[in-house]
Amino acid sequence: MDPNILNHQKEYKLEYKKLLKQLSFGIQEKKLIENLEIPEDAFLPFLFSIKFGGDWSLKTDSVNAMAIKEKITRYNADKMEGYTLEKVFLFLNPRILKETGRVRRLEKCGNKKDREIVERPFRVKVDAERIINAVLDPFTMKITIKDMQGPLIFEGSSAYGISHEMEHLSGSESKGKFLWEFKYILKDTEINKQK
Ligand SMILES: [Zn+2]
């Protein structure tokens, strides 16, 4: 037998196994949506955040849905090893109850070409008609899903994400200065002086 054919068969089998696994992952997702009893559309930001990372929001006629991802690294300094847990929060019809502090920062929205300066609250208190939480554990390879009781408080990058996505949902986007309006400042260094 031509060894090339054998090789192709091997690849074909691997590809087939991968397809089966992906298919069963998709079936799990479908069952999950049924069990949680939420509209399929509302689940999309959640799946995007789980599959591709980052924060997502979706506005339909019936629901505002927003998914926010938080990452927590647990590191054991003695053993010098750890893992990063990912927590995804899905909010159905979210509303911000309180914003505290102002943080000026550069952000890049997926829909836009340039990074721009925006102001975000440092801390937000947010509630929703439904809050569903997923914890992705790369150690156990499990995604644990549970309902959560609001309101919840977020700080830092998840608070910025919430503020960003809420803006998309309300359709009121802030306009700021762009990165290309910055100035580069080259400080005097020993290397410069030598030239
Ligand atoms: Zn955006």
TrEMBL record:
Q: Which SUPFAM superfamilies match?
A: Peptide deformylase
What InterPro entries does the annotation carry?
Answer: Asp_endopeptidase (IPR008503), Peptide_deformylase_sf (IPR036821)
Retropepsin-like aspartic endopeptidase domain location: 45-146
Q: What name appears for this protein in its UniProt entry? A: Retropepsin-like aspartic endopeptidase domain-containing protein
In which organism is this protein found?
Methanobacterium paludis (strain DSM 25820 / JCM 18151 / SWAN1)
